[in-house]
Amino acid sequence: MSSGDIDALLRVTSPTYVGRTSPDVAFGTLDGPVGRLVLAVTGRGVVACSYEDENTVFERVSNEVSSFIGGDPRRLDPVRRELDAYFSGRLRTFTVPIDLQLATPFARTVLQKMLTVPYGTVTTYREIAERIGRPRALRAVGNALGGNPVCVIVPCHRVVESETVLGGYAGGPVAKERLLRVERGAGRPPLSP
């Protein structure tokens, strides 16, 4: 077995092995108060922060970004630290760069608009559709948000059906409610699912 083969084997089997060269995509997980998040980071930024299972995210990243994937704590740890700070209420704005290459061009437009929705506030599907100049594209906006590859960091949880109805979320209604509670403060009542 050559040293390249050993390096490849270690990269696949050891979650903390970095090897001689950094992988194109750093891949790992974070267990937090809203469940397990699967993380993937490219040289451009966070390409995935997903509630989907690890195999699904790994396959999608492998097919659409790069098959050179491995653990790289130097690139994953800043994302994990910011997520931990966010969940504890100490971080309001993420500073880690985002890579939206897993989103369609239309979805990128929607997700970039989501980055302008302030911490602690909510908006509606209709408001987002109007802000991107597509007031009748409510379903398309909903689909773009439902397919957000960078959940939490790109705050699609801040979109609600109305001021009293929570609406759907990739992590489920309990996760969405928890995220909104973190941002709104525990004293405010939750929205209805």
Q: What does this entry show, briefly?
A:
The protein has 193 residues and is an alpha/beta fold.
Structure, explained:
- The chain is of the alpha/beta class.
- Helix content is 39%, strand content 13%.
- It has seven helices and six strands.
- It has helices spanning 3-13, 54-64, 73-87, 105-114, 125-131, 138-146, 173-184, and strands at residues 25-32, 35-41, 46-50, 69-70, 123-124, 159-160.
- The strands form two sheets. Strands 3-2-1-4 form a four-stranded mixed β-sheet, sandwiched between helices.
- A hairpin with a 4-residue loop joins strand 2 and strand 3 (46-50).
- Helix 4 (105-114) crosses helix 6 (138-146) and helix 5 (125-131) crosses helix 6.
- The protein is globular, with a radius of gyration of 18 Å.
- The chain starts with a helix and ends in a 9-residue tail after the last helix.
- Mean pLDDT is 88; it is low at 1-6.
Q: State the helical fraction.
A: 25-40%
Principal-axis shape equals: globular
Tell me the structural class.
alpha/beta
Residue windows where pLDDT falls under 50 for at least 5 positions:
1-6
Strand order of the largest sheet: 3-2-1-4
Helix and strand layout, with pairings?
Elements: H1 3-13, E1 25-32, E2 35-41, E3 46-50, H2 54-64, E4 69-70, H3 73-87, H4 105-114, E5 123-124, H5 125-131, H6 138-146, E6 159-160, H7 173-184
Parallel strand pairs: 1-4, 5-6
Antiparallel strand pairs: 1-2, 2-3
